Amino acid sequence: MPEITGYHAHVYFDAETQNIAQQVCEEAARLFPVEMGRMHAKNVGPHPRWSCQLAFAADAFDQVIPWLMLNRQGLTVFTHPETGQHLEDHRDRAVWMGELLDLNLSIFDKLKT
Which residues are registered as beta bridge partners of 97? Predict the structure, then answer.
């Protein structure tokens, strides 16, 4: 079984909800050992919406995820483990809060070669 070395939570937003998403992400980074990524006002990687990544260690899962469940303010949050198996982590091992969206998993085809 692969080892989970950390997690990424991707907070999805659009032009109307960007400020809310920034507040949620900044508060998570203030409260927990979370590294907040950039606020991407474009689709990045496999993500079908604008997003901000919150990266955290495996031992912070039990703090960060319940907080996001209660404080995501209606935003969709996609969370996946980091095991080094990128396709499986995004496709098979993810946790969704809010709307279930289709990821662009074709980007992982390049990683297999």
Answer: 77
SS3 (DSSP) at 52: strand
Residue 101: count of CB within 10 angstroms of its CB: 12
- Token code pair at residue 86: 């990128």
Contact 65, 77 (CB under 8 A): no
- CA 55 vs. chain centroid, Å, equals 8
Q: Delimit the domains of the chain by residue range.
A: 6-112
CATH class, range 6-112: alpha beta
pLDDT tens digits for range 1-34: 899 999 999 999 999 999 999 999 999 999 999 9
Q: pTM for the whole thing?
A: 0.93
